[in-house]
Amino acid sequence: MPEPTGVIHDIGYQRYTGPRLGRRAVFGALYLHGLRTAFGLGRSAKAKIFPWLVVGIVTLVAAAATAVRSQIGEVVMTYAQFADNMSWLVIFFVAVVAPELVSRDLLSGVLPLYFSRPLPRSDYPVAKLLALATALWLLLGGPQLVMFLGAAFTGGDGMRGVWNELLDLLPGLLYAGLWAAVFASVGLLVASLTGKRAFAAGGIVAVFLMTTPIVGVLSIMPSQTINELAFLASPSTLVGSVGAWALGDLLGPQASVPIGGFGPVYAVAAVLLVAGCVALLLQRYRKVAAR
C-alpha cells in the first residue's frame, strides 16, 4: 500500500470566536461608510475637495445672510428660501457623490462579497440611500443652523425671539428633508444603472437639468390646467411647488408658483416619486444579486 504523499501543515489559523454582530451591525456599517464617503472622510485629499468646497460655499452663503441681517435688521433669506437657492449646488453634489456610493461597487464586482454576509439584498441600497439623504439634509440643514444661531442669539427679544426663530427654522429643516429625499432617491437610482461614474454623473445632471425646459414648454401651453401641472415634469420644480403650497409666506415671492389648487397633487406626486424610485432601486439590486 503506497504511503500518503500529502502533508497537512498547521500554520496557526484559528476559528473566529468573537461576537457575531449580525444584520444590524452590517447595515449600520454600510450606512456610516456611505455617509463618510459622501464627504470624502477616510479617503484621499483629492476626494475631499469637491464635497468640502460645496460645504464651504453653502456655509459662507448662510454666514453672509446672517451678517447682512444683523446689520440691517431685516431677513434677507428665510430658512426655506435658503434650501431653494442652494438646490442647484445640491444637484452637482448628488451627481458626484451618488456614483461614488454605488457605481464603484458595481464596476469592481464586490457586491457578491457584501451579499455573502448576513445582509438581505434590500439592505445594501437602503443603507446607501439613507446615507446620501442624510448627507444632503446636513448639507442644507447645517447652514440653516448657522443662520438660526446668528439670528436667535444676536437679537434683543430674549427667549421669545429664540422661540420665534425656532418656529421659523423647523419648517426650513423639513423642507430641506424633502429636497434630500427626492434628490437622493432619484440620483441613487440613476447611478445604480451603470458602473461607470462619468456616465452616472452625466445621467443625474441630465435628469435634473434637462427636464426643466419641458416645464417651460408646458407652462406656456394654451390650457391653464396644463400650465398649473407643468411643474410635475421636473424633480426640482416639483419640490419647489410642494414648498410653495405648504410653506407659503416662508418662501416669500418664490411662493407665487402658478400651481392653482393642485398643491395636494404635487405633494402626492413627490411621495409617489420617492416611493417609485425606492421600489425600482430595490428591484435593480435584486437583479444585480441574481447574476
Summarize the structure in words.
This protein is mainly alpha-helical. It has one domain. Helices cover 72% and strands 0% of the residues. The mean pLDDT is 86.
Give the SSE map.
Layout: H1 23-38, H2 45-72, H3 79-85, H4 87-108, H5 111-115, H6 123-152, H7 158-191, H8 197-209, H9 212-218, H10 224-229, H11 235-247, H12 263-290
Descriptors:
mainly alpha; 291 residues; 0% strand; 72% helix
Structural class: mainly alpha
Total strands: 0
Largest sheet: none
Radius of gyration: 24 Å
Helix content: over 70%
Mean pLDDT: 86
Dominant shape:
globular
Could you write a compact summary of the structure shown?
With 291 residues, this protein is mostly helical.
